Amino acid sequence: MELGRFLIHAATLDAFERGIVAEPLRAERAYEERAARLERELASGRGGSIVPIVSAVFGDLDYHGTGGSISDVLLTGGGSCEGLTHLLAAALHDSVLAPYAFVRTWGGGPVGHLAPVYRVGGEGTDLLSGSTPIGGVELRADELVEVYARHHGLAPALDGPSSAGVGTSGERPTLARGYPPNADAYGGSVPLFAERAIASVRVDRGEELPAEDRARIAAASLDRVVGLSDDAQRDLSTCGVRSIVARPSRFHAWLDAEPIEIDVEPALPLSTISALLRDAARLERRPAAAGVRGVAEAACLHETYRIAARHLAFARRPQLSLEASRRARASRELAEQRTADLAWTDALREELFGLVYADSITAIPAVADRLLEGAALTKPEAPWPFERPWSEVVVALLDEPHTQARALTLVEATPIRTRLSLAVTVASLPAAPSRSVQLPPESNLARAARALAQMAKQPPRDLEDSLRSAAEHGMPPSWIEELRGLRD
């Protein structure tokens, strides 16, 4: 276990230099336990792919992009690519698999990347992704000792571009200056957080595909069947927040005989947060879209990181929550800048409003303003792609304080059938897990929604009974008169 111990004590020295508390003895004990488990797995004779074996020992570790050493990974249950790579490479090296233990580094792109590689002959497996590594520079696991020496000026530096930024948030120690220099960018996506750091599924011999691969194949099949455009295909995979986020619901309670309102939001499981941030990482890796989609995609990243920050806080991950908040602010500023730079026309406003995920990007006032203008230009009964109703975006605008009053005015100018349909939508929202909306109690839409909710408890017998019941339950008189006009 010499390489593992060396890396733990090297990390301890680096931590002391920065005034960070380290616990090398605890880290060593944790490493010895992991190494012993790996030896037992290897001795079990089950054989097969290396990925399931490594996953059985290290599959409980998570990945996060806020730095950390091998000791941090061992003591906290997760870390960045550098700490995880040091742990896995050292564990392989200190077992019977030493000849097959390698490390690969990518120095290009906005941030470098590091991965542990298991290599037999010409075939290598990146243990963090479960795939064959492409690009970068590979070194034997025991060469991490030389990496440490170069980083600290104890060995001659290698010529070439620096790998600075590998696995660090800027606060935690890293060996970035010691890795072999190269300009290759990592080809995969590296999320802010992933519940499982080690690849847990390896597709071999017809095994079931991972969910994300099934979704990708399904999307490709859909394109072949209905001929979706490139833009529509891009939009379908842009904003994952639409399908997995449960919004707060408001409940009434009593405290010391006084009524109060409580907002209750179900905490997302770590697996869902991981999926959300994986979608964000993929979106960030795409070439920047131009025009309206450039605005919308930045706004989607803002919404994704804003929600992730809240739920990471619920999950007691304060550092990750702060980093997600920082990324949310950066994405918001980007969306605002792109909105200001675009010469908006009615066609562009309608294009923004027509995006399949438009109802998820209303939190930024500058973007919400353009969406509201698009809603005013669009007929509510217009057929939108994938039959997405006009009301979805309008309900989202009604839910934002910045646009609520103007959205209510817009609703009042629509035909009575549209208003009634929207009131039905609002009335059913308390039972829906994905959306709730708080309207001014005396607004016509809120009054109509309350009346419809009450009428649903005792359905009217006929149209005249419906109008009479609507009036009794407080539906706006002007709406009732318009409905009578439809009957006549």
Question: Topology of this structure?
Answer:
Layout: H1 2-17, H2 24-43, H3 50-58, E1 62-64, H4 70-76, E2 78-79, H5 81-93, E3 101-106, E4 113-120, E5 123-126, E6 137-140, H6 144-151, E7 193-194, H7 211-226, H8 230-236, H9 241-244, E8 249-255, E9 258-264, H10 270-285, H11 291-314, H12 318-341, H13 346-353, H14 365-377, H15 390-398, H16 404-412, H17 416-428, H18 444-455, H19 463-472, H20 477-487
Parallel strand pairs: 1-2
Antiparallel strand pairs: 1-7, 3-4, 3-6, 4-5, 8-9
How would you sum up this structure, described in words?
This protein has 488 residues and is an alpha+beta fold. It has four domains: 2-204; 241-342; 353-411; 415-488, no CATH class. It has helices spanning 2-17, 24-43, 50-58, 70-76, 81-93, 144-151, 211-226, 230-236, 241-244, 270-285, 291-314, 318-341, 346-353, 365-377, 390-398, 404-412, 416-428, 444-455, 463-472, 477-487; strands at 62-64, 78-79, 101-106, 113-120, 123-126, 137-140, 193-194, 249-255, 258-264. The strands form three sheets. Strands 5-4-3-6 form a four-stranded antiparallel beta sheet.
